Amino acid sequence: MQTTGYAAQSADSPLKPYSYDCRSLRDEDVAIEILYSGVCHSDLHTARNDWGWTVYPTVPGHEIVGRVIEVGSKVSKYKVGDHVAVGCMVDSCQECQHCHSGEEQFCEEGMTQTYNSPDRITQEITKGGYAKHVVVREEFVLEVPASLDLAKVAPLLCAGITTYSPLRTWDVGPGSKVGVVGMGGLGHMAVKLAVAMGAHVTVLSRSEGKRQDAMDLNADAFLISSDSDAMAQAANHFDLIIDTVPVKHDVTPYFPLLKVDGTIALVGQVGPMAELNSVPMLLGRRRLAGSIIGGIKETQEMLDFCGRFNILPEVEMIKMEQINEAFERLEKADVHYRFVIDMQASNF
Predict the structure, then answer these.
(1) Which of 99, 183, 228, 252 is deepest in the core (most CB within 10 A)?
(2) Could you say which residues of the chain have pLDDT below 70?
(3) Which residues contact 234 (CB under 8 A, 6 or more apart)?
């Protein structure tokens, strides 16, 4: 099936229309007409080859909502016309211990990412959601709760599950005290989800600028991390801090804020970290952990949770042909809080 997307041809070139063939439908595959595609900071990093592993041409996009248009002969869960979603993975070995335990993101053979990743069978490089169509293995297609506004669902497939997973891993619930560092696409979802779980939620920011936004999202408190007195008063307070900052930064100042056995979960930064001071870690048996998306079972659980509580990201709708401008704004953190591409309104 031929389709059209927007691709980067090099690290310094703008995204432009690009025609290519989706893979032929296998017996267990679902073909999807893409209706909405979220714009993730990872898309920008990949297009610019910031991480050094981009294969060009690359069609980004791993926050996909669409309509089923064809299914393979062995597909039993979905039918033509169903509204479905696809996140950051489209395949895994399905045989290793992690796949069997529902954590395909840790597949021992390596998950197949939605874009910029070799297909498990053909080795062709996958193309993502900045396109009209995508073909995905049935096990990696997700159901969209009917109660949710379809146009706003896409960012849940990355920003949603990326913040939901550590909240579940560290058993956040009523009585938990959660800090959220950074109030961008990931951070605002962490706040919404933690509040819905019953936690006491504090947003940490370097200045007053995000205070009203935090309160609008129903955060319980706001802590200015550049205020040494306020930071000292908040010592030994949090069970979990979710750090969503996407650039290199010092996490040491946040450790004294944790209770004994508290955790900082890094979900934003990829790559070398600033030098750490181990003293506040040792003195409180505190830990620094990483977390990356979630398995398919947990992602469906997250979607269903959002469906029950009507949790959706704050989004700005754009057309596909506005993606380069959106990337420039994303680089400046000039979005409140996530871009979503409306494919039906786009002309390409």
Answers:
(1) 183
(2) none
(3) 202, 223, 257
